[in-house]
Amino acid sequence: MMSMMVTMKVVGLGAVALTVSLELLSWLLSHLRSRRTLNQVLFFPSETACVEHIFTPTSPRFCSCSLPHGVETSFSRLLRHILSASTSLDLCVFSFSNMVLSRAVLLLHSKGVTIRVLTDKDYSAISGSQIGVLREAGGISSCFSVLSTCLSSFTTGRICVRCDKSSTHMHHKFAVVDSRLLITGSLNWTLTAVQNNMENILITEEPDLVKPFIKEFHRMWGLNDPAQNHQNQKLISHGMC
Amino acid sequence: MMSMMVTMKVVGLGAVALTVSLELLSWLLSHLRSRRTLNQVLFFPSETACVEHIFTPTSPRFCSCSLPHGVETSFSRLLRHILSASTSLDLCVFSFSNMVLSRAVLLLHSKGVTIRVLTDKDYSAISGSQIGVLREAGGISSCFSVLSTCLSSFTTGRICVRCDKSSTHMHHKFAVVDSRLLITGSLNWTLTAVQNNMENILITEEPDLVKPFIKEFHRMWGLNDPAQNHQNQKLISHGMC
User: Fold this and answer.
1) pLDDT tens digits, residue range B151-166?
2) Predicted ipTM?
3) Nearest by Cα to A34 from B208, B55, B6, B47
4) Predicted model pTM
């Protein structure tokens, strides 16, 4: 009788221990899972600070510029997220004239990251637009010579630029990093937006939010395929888009 | 001996059943929790369709307009989210000229929902802006007579409008419904943005995304308090903002 009671106690305690352990494991896993899903909001105007160390993190050069150093800002955080791309950057932006953001895209390109840029055709031609710089880095002629691969689909380590062909505004301001991270908001990729305006940027890895943007980018990219659009081809060949 | 084995089996089975039940309950709760967190993306331009039934859902009137009826669109979904407000709507928008969205805000106001609108001072004065309509509905004079409550803090069931006093653009386009639901994106509250442009709206209840916007709205609302800003008071008293 005594032995049975001891056994029951042992089994009971074992069951309780097992339940508690499983509960703890479940909580830990769900906690880690929710921790892993990045959700961040950045507000602008951003403080102005030197970002040289973000471009050269492994071999930081001494920077003698007059801007504050070692300050983390909304802009530096945005830059870090963009530069976290290791395979692809899909950028869909109304206006792109910010030279530091352009430098970030060119740096990714030099590392073999595949860049696709979809922009508004009117704003791509305004003074200071970086669209021409990106297109030049991607190589207009080489882009044309591999029309079936680069312009119709996707080639690794390239910058391919397409202009929205509709008569209305392509007013999006979003980027998708490595088909994983969404960067979206009110902020155009201009100096005024970063340094002067009141703007927001939302950064998330939440699949329910990222996936629709990937799908929409894919749809618009296909819609604005120059191979399907003679007017766009003409604009590109004249260096206007 | 036989009795002890039976008891052990019963206790063992009980422990397993308890563990499995707790695991199931935990999974169910976490599943329901993740299901409850709304994350939705809407793309524009929206199809054009009649939205009369959204304004009068309990007593739908026969609508003889020429637009398609019974069609769910990005715009109708956006309207439903705005009209889901039961206590408050904090709106921070660069340009607001869409009359249907204005009607939605006025409907919420008539139901006692407290509305705060923060907008760009330049765009609030352009032709077709709904800011004057909202301010009128809120009551300029009554707003002034209770300056300490309405303009400095918050009064229930009112529309209070403030204009960003800075010389740069207040370029946000977001709304917070009941301090719970965030509506944000590239879309200004204009007819062109809804019907013509390529735009996005992201709708989320994710606290990590909603809370920063609530905090930023609170900060900007305080910064643009007319009680602290004589220039804004002058603009309001002249009906310009």
Assistant:
1) 434 445 689 999 998 8
2) 0.81
3) B208
4) 0.81
